Amino acid sequence: MKEVVHHGDYFAYNAFKTSVNAHNSTDEYLAICKSVSQWYKSRQRRPPGPVGLPFVGYLPFLGKEPHKTFWNMRKKYGDIISVYLGSKYTIILNEYNVAKEVLSHPGSLDRGPDIFKHLDNVGFIIENGAPWVEQRRFTMTAAKDLGLGKEYWGILIMEELSILIQKLRELKGRPFDISEDLLSSLNASILSLLIGRRLGKDEVDKLHLSAEYSEIALTKTGPSNPTTLVPGLRKAFEIFKIAGYDKARKTILQFQSFMKEEIQRHKTSQTFQDIPDFINSYLEKCSEMSKTNNKHHSFSEKMLEGNLALLFVGASDTIYSNVVWMFRIMCKYPDIQEKVYTELMEILGEDGQAKYEERDKIPYTFAVLMEGQRYASNVPLSPTRRANQDIPVNGCVIPKGSEITVNLWGLHHDPAYWDEPEEFRPERFLMDGGTKLIMKPPSYAPFSLGRRNCPGETIAWKQILYYFSEIIKKFEISTPPGIDPEFEIINGLLTRLVPQPLCFKERNI
């Protein structure tokens, strides 16, 4: 394959030439030649990629959908592409086996330092090494003990969902943009479990604040977002009030204050000190650790604030975006929608509830959701990792310090794994005549790969299944007459669909 040299490598090479010209000593000359030779050999082993521009790298050429640009570059450069995004030397992984090998390597366990920098503090997701292990382990254990993904949380979800269903009934099938109400419903259930109370009717502003925060967290960042990659650009946008970044900063600070207030409420109010919620569980752990001889632990109130933000974002906008995609897809494929409805009614009946733990009872419905994750790929590029050592793969070496991201959209649309990937076919995830699910097919990674994959996968599936199945059972979803479903996206770390009014016509059961 033809060698492709980045602009940064030219600078390094010229520096070596200058050094050679400035020295007359034979020993120094030989030493420099050896260094040049070693540098050139290491460069030959780097993955190939295009030459970008100074300072901005390849950013100006990515277009509105960078994941598709990277996928098209595969024809020229292969499965592993190196590219400068701003000043960051970044590796794009375009193929499943390559991505699996790299993300399973211990050298790729570190998180890229800037991906969530604009949020200041999002807990263990930005930690590396021992703090990441310690915080992730505690957070996930505590979340499970408190009911995340279990029956108690299911009750909370159904309570909030029933309010949304009543709102849809009152509309009597008239076109309605469900976006705001759906997001508020999803947010209310997760917040009640995290902060130990249900927001009151006079606290609607906090639900709006939470919705704005989750949108900012996931749409104003990403592995290809210039404000994430170009040093100082986000701050400049905030100062000069460009593209709403000044308002975004204000929202982030307000949400942080909201979380601090709730923590303080738990510390000072006897009423809240006995509630079995995440805040109390974490504060108890902090107290426990303060009494030990371990002075190097990572438990603190600041980390608690970050973990609350992380759990909220992980169970909010990502789930919301997926449910919106599913409703829009059902409008495009009404025959599939009817098959889902038929299965749900035959297996569960009007009053039965779909449970993630019993998804094998409704294989077609769950296959539709799995295909929705593949088809939409609403997290098209995985959050960046940073190589903490050289990583050999496919005859190349990913150099230490490189940023690494997986083209998840590419994995999900690779014709080597998916026949006609642009088509929506739930049958891809079924076997034995459609009676059994294929849970882990190759090149399927909606929650990423490796040890730093999404920690909330089960939680996400449960909430998506609840909302999707209950609304399909009660309503026929369609676009207004004469209007096709739209799939224009708002790009970021995840792809939100541009809002579109839909009709929710109550079924005659």
Written account of the structure:
This protein is an alpha+beta fold and 509 residues long. The protein has a single domain, classed as Cytochrome P450 (Cytochrome p450), CATH 1.10.630.10. The chain is built from 19 helices and 13 strands. The strands form five sheets. It has a five-stranded mixed β-sheet. The chain has a two-stranded antiparallel sheet with strand order 5-6. Strands 8-9 form a two-stranded antiparallel ribbon. Strand 1 (80-85) and strand 2 form a beta hairpin. Helix 7 packs across helix 8, helix 7 (179-195) packs antiparallel against helix 15 and helix 10 (233-239) packs across helix 11 (245-268). 41% of the residues are buried. Mean pLDDT is 88; it is low at 1-5 and 7-18.
Got a strand count?
13
Supply the number of structural domains: 1
Number of helical segments?
A: 19
The gyration radius over C-alpha positions equals 25 Å
GO biological process, one term: xenobiotic metabolic process
Main location: endoplasmic reticulum
Cofactor: heme
Organism: Araneus ventricosus
